[in-house]
Amino acid sequence: MPGADKTVLITGARAPVALHLARLLDGAGRRVIMADTPARPIAAASKACARYHRLPPPRFEPEAYADAVEAMVRAEGIELVIPTCEEVFYLALTWRGRKVPARLFAPDIDLLAQVHNKHAFIGLVDSLGLAAPETTLLRSRDDLDAVRSRSRELVFKPVWSRFASHVLLRPTPDFLDAIAPSPAMPWVAQRCIDGDEISAYAVARAGRLKALALYRSLYRAGKGAGIYFEPVEDRAARKLVERIVAGTGWSGQISFDLMREADGTVLPLECNPRAVSGLHFFREPARFADAALGDGPEVTPDVTAPQTVRLAMWVYGLPAALRSGDLDRFRKAMREGQELLDWPDDAAPVKAQWTALAEIAGVAWRQRISLQAASTRDIEWNGPGDDS
Asked: Which CATH number applies to 1-106+347-381?
């Protein structure tokens, strides 16, 4: 029965959204087991985490990962598994190939792959009769040359990517020589839309919307992941999310990057079939759990103040403010933003973020990659060829 699950596994314990979800479900009376590949993720330090299991990296050891997850589910008596990051793809593949005695709170791998693919997602939106920006698939130099003359009107990005990594925004034609799309590593060229960015986080069950938070990111880690968020309201955005969720029969968490044009039209840019920071605008455990996992009515956000991770603001927000010369805006944001890691009687994760950051920094140093790339290197899923 929906809502009857007492022992829940939340994966992706490195992510603040996984910690937040654990706190919500623990507060609603669930026993929460957590798992991920780092040794010391922030969520493992939380009182909401009954036990933490360290797993093999799914991107590099998918079979060992699947073995470990299945064994954990059986040993812990887990009834429901809730992914929060891109490990959702590896879990969906595990559920397709094995008889794991727990429900996976996510669609099948085919639908996950379709919405994660930045070109296929736009095709899905078109098939539902919804407006979307013109998006061209690039699989060769010839495809690239065909749009080169319009490059200043377009956004270029890999089909499989996250955090706006490698995005080229209205580049000059000569700058396109830096990329080489191929069938194995395709790109898209999407019409660049002027307007206001809106991010959407949703939970759905069988195509029915159960929770929705709309927000915008005022500060980001580089070009991509937001680190300071404030809620917004937009009826057109809500209607768009409802239509996509209903049209796909979605069950699980799903998120979107949207753009609102000057006339109020809201267009979808891309989809992330996982949790994002909009989850932090929900803080009432019982209402959220009843809506997301039970038979309760749709839950609306109960947090109105901006949410942030102060450590990330010092690492990324302050340098951005210094570059732009807008320190007053930064100071105001730091005064008004609530630390999203704070939770009554659960202070340990705030301190644990330092050890978690040190572990990620170690990966970044060894692999000679950015902190952001290091934070997801072992769980990224870059298409069907990346699951073995």
From this structure: 3.40.50.20
